[in-house]
Amino acid sequence: MKNGLGSSFDEFLEEEGMLAQSEAVAAKRVIAYQIEEAMRKAKITKTEMAKRMHTSRAAVNRLLDPMNTSVNLSTIESAAVALGRRIRIEMA
Fold first, then answer.
1. At what angle do helices 57-64 and 46-53 cross, to 10 degrees?
2. Which runs of consecutive H residues, i.e. helices, occur in the chain?
3. SS3 of residue 14 by DSSP
4. pTM tops 0.85
């Protein structure tokens, strides 16, 4: 970074090698929030969600952990199906 004036935060993160991880955490936070809100509205507990997803409650906890970016797309899709929802992915 030259003098820092006029540079964006994204440019700073990219220069520091942290942009991809920051974006992954931000995306995961949104996904975890949306799943948790859908569960709350449908009055579905974590235990019930695990049953619907055919997985463990620990896996549901990882899914809902906003800092855990290791959750894969098939797990997110399974959660969506368990909630009667669909996922939509787009690149910007």
1. 110
2. 9-15, 19-42, 46-53, 57-64, 73-82
3. helix
4. no
